[in-house]
Amino acid sequence: MVSILRDWFVMLATTRMTKSFKMVLLRVLLDNDAVFSGMPIPELAAKCREFLVAHEFLRRDIADATTGQPVEMSPRKWESSWRKFPISIWMQEQEGRSWFTIHRDSLRVAFECDERLRGPLESMSGELVDFRLAAHARSRASATGFVAKSARRGQPGLFPALEDGKLLVDLGDHLADACLGESLLSDGMIALEVGDPLLEDPEVAMGLLVLSGAGDHR
Question: Rounded CA gap, 14 and 53, in Å?
Fold first, then answer.
């Protein structure tokens, strides 16, 4: 189980992103408590479009190049497009594992997790998803047009405390100082640069899992 969780967090932190779609899909599953129970794909696709349209910068991933507005598309056509990307991409193996499965036309993660660990796993997954979305949004925004804010469930467009390209994670007493070395700040926070190699370190990912058990950060 520990190996699966480690690989899951490493995959979230490092999976390739050309657009925001893969992380938006995960954010919607998390917001609807559907990571393990699953969500019907038509509903999932619709909610993902709502999320994208509501976001000041991420909507540019579905915008018309001429008008800058989201491309109009029928629900059926959008669903078909969403099945091709990102759902079909998530169905492929990453880090040697298949992370998602479709059962009765509902998408969910392909691994089981002890119910006692689901809360911490979803909380930390949400932090990583929001971090990836924040980094992507910065790339879609103008140099002066991006303002990062704290992320909270059900509020598209808000991200974790991201200041000058750094993700601030409250360590408290739940992560050994040695794990993060000199990156540890005096106020019990850790500053990780966007793309910091620490995010690819399985030991850090597992340490942050322990951290997330301190409470629900959604």
Answer: 25
